[in-house]
Amino acid sequence: MEPHTVDAAGRHFVLVDGGGRMSALDTATGKRVWEVPDAVPMSLRGDGIATDEDGSVLYALWQDKDHGYSLGALDSGTGRTRWKVPVPADSKDSRSFGARLLCADGNVYRMGADSVVWAFDPSNGKPRWKYTGMKGTDPSKLAWTAGDGRLCLSDPTATTVAALHANGA
To answer: What is the 3-state secondary structure (H, E, C) of 47-85?
Structure first.
């Protein structure tokens, strides 16, 4: 395998290769437990998949036939799809490809290639709110973390930090 993205999900390591195949490997044996095709193969800074707090749900992006993206939730133990919904498109003038995902404080966050951050409901993928304050910034240079009901974005180039409440207020 030539993984482009790796994450821990429950009792497995989940890898996405350059062709978009997502595979779960048993942490004890390294054997493939399940695989899912057509996940978005490239991500910005390796955050192309995310898990919920206990590792039972895995969130990922898929390339749609119309070249858009869908956000989906999988059971991390079986690889079965729980739901999959189209996500808002990045701006057409984006120079980057891929997306980053983060799951925290009751949201699944997606930072697109245009550096716009969306918060989605982890139970169904519906958008809750978006933040455009970093739009136009190279997303691979942005750092982010979440916890205690806040999402924090940092742009070291512009020495800018944004702290956003998890409910978008």
So the answer is: CCEEECCCCCEEEEEEECCCCCEEEEEEECCCCCEEEEE
Joined together, the tokens standing for residue 57 give: 């749900």
Rounding to the nearest 10 degrees, give the CA dihedral for residues 107, 124, 60, 15: 100
Separation between Cα atoms, residue 119 and residue 129, nearest integer Å: 5
Inter-CA distances, 126 with 10, 47, 73, 75, 88, Å: 24, 20, 12, 18, 10
Bridge partner residues of 76 (DSSP): none
pTM: 0.86
Q: Would you call 103 helix, strand, or coil by DSSP?
A: strand
Summarised one tens digit per residue, pLDDT across range 101-117 is 999 999 999 988 888 89
What is the CA 95 to chain-centroid distance, rounded? 19
Strand stretches in 94-167, DSSP E? 100-104, 107-111, 117-120, 127-131, 143-147, 150-155, 160-165
Gap between the Cα atoms of 137 and 158, Å rounded: 9
